[in-house]
Amino acid sequence: MKLEQRTDQELIRLYVAGEETGLEILIDRYKTKLYTSIYLLVKDESLAEDIFQDTFIKVINTLRSGRYNEEGKFLPWVMRIAHNLVIDHYRRERRTPVVVNSDGFDIFDVLQFADESAETKMVREQTHRDLRRMIQRLPDDQKEVLIMRHYGDMSFKEIAVVTEVSINTALGRMRYALNNLRKMMYGDEAALRAG
Q1: 120-157 per-residue burial string, b: 16 or more CB within 10 A, e: under 16
Q2: Mean pLDDT, rounded, of the chain
Q3: Under 8 Å between Cβ of 105 and 140
């Protein structure tokens, strides 16, 4: 049997036994899916590449130390590692991702309306800044789901897998996030619910 046709578990065993190509095939097998999911969350190619590399450094360290025990669940395990690294990045940065269009511009910066007055533009920019600030004040689990759904364009099923919760929990967190944003917009911060 060709190495490419082996299961994830077989390739991991080969790698742990000293056969480097086992990991190379696994990386090749999942690199597009993993990189894309990281990129959708961070919207920055070089940052996505850094997190992708950091993910596999953690994978290698875990495999080499003999601590890997996710029988048959290699991809969800790697996705969880990448997801945690993205969350760590945003916790360090304390900011929401920028909404970038295909040309690499922040959509909030390049949205132009034909007859937009300077005053209207200032109000719109302030609204976007306020929204970003409000998102930052959400509880982490709500902020995470909101970012993945709206900035990462992930389905609730994908969010549930990555965050290791049920789809109903992911939906509930989104509902709480939207309710809390609405309350913040109307100045009812005392009624914020942790959800």
Answers
A1: eeeeeeeebeeeeebbeebeebbbbbbbbbebbebebe
A2: 79
A3: no
Q: What is the CA radius of gyration of the chain?
A: 20
pTM (2 decimals)? 0.51
Q: Residue 125 is which amino acid?
A: E
Q: What angle do CA 56, 60, 62 make, to 5 degrees?
A: 115
For 167, the 3-state DSSP assignment is: helix
Q: Torsions phi, psi of 95, nearest 5?
A: -150, 160
Q: Residue 117 and residue 36: Cα distance in Å, rounded?
A: 38
- Domains in the chain (CATH in brackets) are 3-93 (1.10.1740.10), 107-191 (1.10.10.10)
CA 127/CA 117 separation, integer angstroms:
15
**Quick check: 107 pLDDT over 90?**
no
Q: How far apart are the first and last CA of the chain?
A: 50
DSSP helix/strand/coil, 99: coil
Amino acid at 7: T
State the Cα–Cα distance between residues 82 and 51, nearest whole angstrom: 7
2 pairs with which residues across the strands?
none
The span from the CA of 89 to the CA of 46, in Å, is 13
Note the pLDDT of residue 95: 52
